[in-house]
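Late entry, evening session. Most of the bench is empty. Finally got around to the prediction I had been postponing all week. Sequence below, unchanged from the version circulated by S.P.
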Amino acid sequence: MSKTLNILLMDPPYESSNTATAFRIMESAINKGHNITVFAYEGATSLTLKHQKGHPNPVKDTTAAEEKHPLTKDFVTGLFGLAREKGTSFRWVNCGFCVDERGVGEWDEGPERGGPPQFAEMYKNADQTLIIPTSR
């Protein structure tokens, strides 16, 4: 029987290892057949920002294409795909208040806009909730 893991994520992209750890936890849970719900709060709403771009690395004299900088929006898209492949559900809700404050309302297909009522619903329907706070 699959379980549902609910994750409250707060860190913006690239600020700490919290985000990468959260993505690894999500991937592992999906691979084990579990459903995932994510509520992205505060800076984590930027994780799905549609207009993220890789960049060159002048120190190594590489172009953006050569550098292949990983983008968090691609990790999220990959998690949606992995869940479809494994027959589990993956739901990502960006806090609407946080999105508006940061102007990050454009994301690729998959994430949705929500707020405290959606997080309360996700919490109530989950078997476990994991809170990954900001590193500050």
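Two things to note before I forget:
The two ends are 37 Å apart (CA to CA).
The longest strand covers residues 4-9.
Will write this up properly tomorrow.
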